[in-house]
């Protein structure tokens, strides 16, 4: 197909009022913004997605790949996208779901009932709808590619993606409700979708877009929700035994209660046990998971003279300041730190009489990492040793939560034992084994137990380390629920590609680009999880990492465009050298470095293979015969890479580098001879 034919089919400059370069940037920014917004919003209403965040991500990758593959096969504008988005929003708001967390196969605890449609019905609807919605903006992006030189088009695509991340990050910083996301989507549809003769533009674009805004506005006004960077937070005033309490739910799940310290100690004895088991008087206290302030209020009531309150969610901290009846955050003895608990332990030089992990159960996963929760790196032996190093002589560490399985208590107690070198105190508060307090002194003499802990029962899994921080996964396996889901996703994707793009042989010449996409997604996952460990699992770190990956990709494109780069075999050599370097540099050594030096080394180690991989892709993509098909094959590879992320449940995150290396080796083997020459 000639360039002129591609322009005619793809909708060239003559068919759109906006010039190709700003149109490409706008469409790319909208595509990534819409992807992030769907991941964030659907997870707040369909609670299954709080634990399977890459479910919508995989649907988005499928849709983006299909959008590129559809270019050249249809002359119609993707008017279907706003219509399907309206349908998706309507279904989610009409049939919200709370999750049933009673299965041992899923990576969390505490059983709750299920309301709304069953998972087997609602999750396929969400996946398919997300794919169709994202296919529209991707098709608009893809139609710009034939109008520009390959790498120039890719360059503007990356600039647009960075703009989309910046816009979504800014709205997260401002805690903007989803109605603003809907307004941006409506504006983007209006600017990008051009009215055509004999097309009911009002019915296909204007009305669906405005209806989405209206639905999201109604949700914002009726739910009374506060949108933090992590959750949809709702509150309600209760009275328990005559005591006023503020009940806090996140993403539809009861999460915390702001209750007076005296009442909480009377109702649930576990809150006072850390102070009874620690020998030293709690003068200096660190509370990780301070939340709405009840644990802080209890520490003050126990005589603490200084409390460092660490909470990752700024909105939960604000609610604690405004709603807690004891007003603990107004006390001059309290200093608040809005950050990740593990990151705080790695950075502070203070020592404490008591370090308390107070129910740090995040109820959500880190975006971009299939199974990493916000608190995953708190429950590893490495984290416990970091806590021990910040104890004063005679100080103690304690943690409590509601545990559904007795093996979880034994696993955590064993983790504490491995870090402190002696058995901790283990108090199982309820007969059902759901509430437990684990306390360990800096030395055995610094703790006073009600009775000796018998030790972990037979069959208790070993501690979950930093490389495999999956506390709630009992066996070293991929649970059946994930395997079935991923298998269905791949089957649906195969059928969708065949229906939209035609015969698979169309993509056969770009099998190496497909494998490059698979491997790159694994590299990105390794970067996200690695930086989460080194600098915290906060949304800010996450956004910076994703932006950094795109900057590294853009740098690779610019270098390839402007300078003569080594041939592909040499660049593959640089890529493999980068993977070896990333494998050899241990996270434990990086954590020991001062923060500025740690940042420099971590960026170098993480982004060298990403940069080299994208020079390889840029050189290969520039030489491809069909820009949209080759790019679509690469994006579909990224979707498969999202499925392979779950291998980390078995092999750990570090070993993903080996899988990526094998995939890159396969891509090198599939290089066409002319590319090698």
TrEMBL record:
Membrane spanning residue stretches: 24-43, 49-72, 79-99, 119-141, 153-173, 179-194, 201-227, 480-501, 513-533, 539-557, 569-589, 595-617, 629-647, 653-671
CDD domains per the UniProt record, alphabetical: AdoMet_MTases (cd02440)
Keyword check for Amino-acid biosynthesis: no
Keyword Lipoprotein assigned: no
Any Pfam family: Spermine_synth
Keyword terms, alphabetized: Membrane, Polyamine biosynthesis, Transmembrane, Transmembrane helix
Gene Ontology terms describing biological process: polyamine biosynthetic process
Entry superkingdom: Bacteria
Name of protein: Spermidine synthase
Species this chain originates from: Nonomuraea glycinis
């Amino acid at each position: 197909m000639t360039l002129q034919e591609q322009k005619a089919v793809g909708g060239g400059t003559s068919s759109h009022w906006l010039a190709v370069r700003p149109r490409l940037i706008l469409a790319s920014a909208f595509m990534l913004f819409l992807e992030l917004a769907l991941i964030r919003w659907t997870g707040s209403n369909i609670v299954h997605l709080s634990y399977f965040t890459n479910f919508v991500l995989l649907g988005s990758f499928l849709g983006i790949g299909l959008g590129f593959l559809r270019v050249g096969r249809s002359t119609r504008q993707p008017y279907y996208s706003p219509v399907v988005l309206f349908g998706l929003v309507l279904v989610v708001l009409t049939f919200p779901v709370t999750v049933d967390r009673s299965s041992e196969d899923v990576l969390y605890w505490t059983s709750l009932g299920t309301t709304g449609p069953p998972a087997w019905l609602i999750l396929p609807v969400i996946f398919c709808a997300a794919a169709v919605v994202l296919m529209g903006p991707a098709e608009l992006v893809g139609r710009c590619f034939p109008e520009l030189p390959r790498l120039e088009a890719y360059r503007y695509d990356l600039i647009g993606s960075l703009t989309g991340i910046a816009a979504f990050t800014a709205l997260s910083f401002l805690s903007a409700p989803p109605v603003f996301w809907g307004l941006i989507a409506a504006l983007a549809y209006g600017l990008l979708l051009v009215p055509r003769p004999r097309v009911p533009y009002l019915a296909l674009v204007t009305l669906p877009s405005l209806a989405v805004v209206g639905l999201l506005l109604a949700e914002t006004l009726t739910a009374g929700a506060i949108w933090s960077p992590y959750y949809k937070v709702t509150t309600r005033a209760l009275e328990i035994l005559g005591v006023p309490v503020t009940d806090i739910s996140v993403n539809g799940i009861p999460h915390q209660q702001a209750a007076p310290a005296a009442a909480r100690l009377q109702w649930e004895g576990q809150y006072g046990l850390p102070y009874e088991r620690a020998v030293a008087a709690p003068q200096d206290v660190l509370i990780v998971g301070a939340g709405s302030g009840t644990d802080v209020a209890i520490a003050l009531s126990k005589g603490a003279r200084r409390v460092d309150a660490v909470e990752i969610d700024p909105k939960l901290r604000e609610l604690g300041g405004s709603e807690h009846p004891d007003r603990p955050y107004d006390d001059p003895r309290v200093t608040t730190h809005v950050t990740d608990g593990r990151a705080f332990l790695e950075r502070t030089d203070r020592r404490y009489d008591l370090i308390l992990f107070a129910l740090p159960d995040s109820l959500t996963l880190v975006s971009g990492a299939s199974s990493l929760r916000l608190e995953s790196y708190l429950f590893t032996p490495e984290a416990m040793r970091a806590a021990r190093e910040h104890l004063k002589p005679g100080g103690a560490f304690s943690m409590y939560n509601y545990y559904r399985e007795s093996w979880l208590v034994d696993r955590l107690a064993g983790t504490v034992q491995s870090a402190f070198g002696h058995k901790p105190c283990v108090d199982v508060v309820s007969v059902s084994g759901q509430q437990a307090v684990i306390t360990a002194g800096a030395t055995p003499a610094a703790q006073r137990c009600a009775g000796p802990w018998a030790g972990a029962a037979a069959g208790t899994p070993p501690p979950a380390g930093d490389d495999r921080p999956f506390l709630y996964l009992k066996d070293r396996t991929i649970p059946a629920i994930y395997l079935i889901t991923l298998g269905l996703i791949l089957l649906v994707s195969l059928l969708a590609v065949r229906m939209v793009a035609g015969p698979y042989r169309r993509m056969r010449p770009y099998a190496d680009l497909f494998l490059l996409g698979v491997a790159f997604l694994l590299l990105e996952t390794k970067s996200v999880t690695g930086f989460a460990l080194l600098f915290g699992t906060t949304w800010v770190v996450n956004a910076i990492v994703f932006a950094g990956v795109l900057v590294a990709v853009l740098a690779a494109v610019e270098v390839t465009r402007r300078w003569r780069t080594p041939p592909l075999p040499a660049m593959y050599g640089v890529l493999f050298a980068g993977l070896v370097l990333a494998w050899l540099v241990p996270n434990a050594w990086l954590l020991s470095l001062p923060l500025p030096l740690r940042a420099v080394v971590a960026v170098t180690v993480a982004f060298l293979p990403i940069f080299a991989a994208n020079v390889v892709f840029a050189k290969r993509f520039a030489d491809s015969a069909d820009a949209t098909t080759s790019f679509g094959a690469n994006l579909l590879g990224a979707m498969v890479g999202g499925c392979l992320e779950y291998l980390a449940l078995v092999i750990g995150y570090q070993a993903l580098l080996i899988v990526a290396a094998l995939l890159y080796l396969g891509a090198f083997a599939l290089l066409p001879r002319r590319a090698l020459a």
